[in-house]
Amino acid sequence: MEILNSINNFWSYTLIITLIFCAIYFTIKIRGAQFTMIGEMIRLLLSSRKNDGNSDNKHSKVSSFQAFAVSIASRVGTGNLAGVATAIAVGGPGAVFWMWVIALLGASNAFIESTLAQLYKIKGEKSFLGGPAYYIKNGIGNKLWANTFAVLITVTFGLAYNSVQSNTIASALNESFGWSPVFIGIILTILSLSIICGSIHRISRFSEIIVPIMAIAYILLAIFVISINITKIPSILQLIVSEAFSIESSIGGGIGMAVLMGVKRGLFSNEAGEGSAPNVAATASVSHPVKQGLLQTFAVYTDTLIICTCTALIILCSGVFNSDYDGIVLTQMALVNEIGAIGAHFVSIAIFFFAFTSIVSNYYYGETNILFMTQNKWTLYLYRAFVGIMVMIGSIASLDFVWALADITMGMMTICNLTAILVLSKYAITLLEDYKYQRLRGYNPTYRSSTISHIANKTKCWE
């Protein structure tokens, strides 16, 4: 833990500086499209269940909505229920404010990376493939850089993040029902392997059904808790803002810790700029890359501004955030305080589905990047085995260990991706202008590789 913490201290501040710089820079370059085009995002979401894009019979099975659902499945999980609780426990209520800020500004990162993923995607055996490794190799032309990212995301999501997800499930079920973490780990490992041994189609169908149901149920519960504490909301919002800028805050070490925990846990939850969501964004069949870029931008808002805020308000309404609880147990105790013992059971069930869908979605990010590095199927089988092992280890490991490991690998892959999208962002901006031009004239925007002629030979999916 001492070694992990010393590495984390360096990466945390490097990550925050880089992330905020890119978020502000891209917000300016796309003229605040993450704010001005929210109506267009909703319109696309409502029409995203059908395929309208550059697909043939072989590559037409992943709709824009399914790709959106898989990315939400990865985003909505431990970060929303346990990560928010950890941020508040360590950084105080002010950490929530900085989670909002990084979501609003960081949504521009999500737009750029997912649009680039669509632009540089390729045709795989069963579906389109793409993501940072693909646009680094084909867009920048640096294979070593691309392979470095592929290794980092495979380790981060397939191994480190999945240990966090299984740790949270085990903690929640142990707290509610007294089940042994070893028993939970074995069940989780078996269930995970049964899903991940399928294709992206099986993963997307699973996520498409489970994620909306659990998200709506959790939001409705949060609305109930907020409604019975409605008189407290103005003072809670005031507390969040005041603590965000309070140097003397007694919780978590003041403004520095509030910013640190808000940005780190916010990034873990919404993944904007991390380089993860582009891997599944690339699988969608759309007529224009910007369509999926806008949908992935909306996914950031869904994750942080809605679901993370629900968790934060539940915890702050309960008043238990000053206790010794941490992680998912803090969220459970907050609900117990508000609606009784059934609250802890509901959180256990919710976190099981949220975190389990995250496990299978996280696995896919690693699979995509392994296929980028090698077509050797035995390597893929070995990766699946390691995913199962890390799910088991995460169930019985300490909370501090799994979070520290995840933070380090997350920081490294995020900086690697942000640097790449800074280099290639001009193409995403060109695509956005093309999309706006077509929409202004009442067209259903379509894209062909000839639009950006000097990279046409690198974007063969759009011929």
What are its keywords?
463 residues, mainly alpha, two-stranded antiparallel sheet, 18 helices, 76% helix
Mean pLDDT across all amino acids: 82
> How many strands in all?
2
Task: Please estimate the helix content.
Answer: over 70%
Principal-axis shape equals: globular
Structural class: mainly alpha
Main beta sheet: 2 strands, antiparallel
Query: Which sequence of strands runs across the widest sheet?
Result: 1-2
SSE layout and pairings?
Layout: H1 2-29, H2 33-36, H3 38-46, H4 64-75, H5 78-91, H6 94-119, E1 122-123, E2 128-129, H7 132-140, H8 143-177, H9 181-196, H10 200-228, H11 233-244, H12 255-270, H13 277-281, H14 289-318, H15 327-339, H16 342-373, H17 377-396, H18 399-440
Antiparallel strand pairs: 1-2
Explained architecture:
The chain is mainly α and 463 residues long. Helices cover 76% and strands 1% of the residues. The chain is built from 18 helices and 2 strands. It has helices spanning 2-29, 33-36, 38-46, 64-75, 78-91, 94-119, 132-140, 143-177, 181-196, 200-228, 233-244, 255-270, 277-281, 289-318, 327-339, 342-373, 377-396, 399-440; strands at 122-123, 128-129. A hairpin with a 4-residue loop joins strand 1 and strand 2. Helix 3 packs across helix 14 (289-318), helix 5 (78-91) packs across helix 14 and helix 6 (94-119) packs parallel to helix 12. The longest helix has 42 residues, at 399-440. It is globular and about 60 Å long. The mean pLDDT is 82.
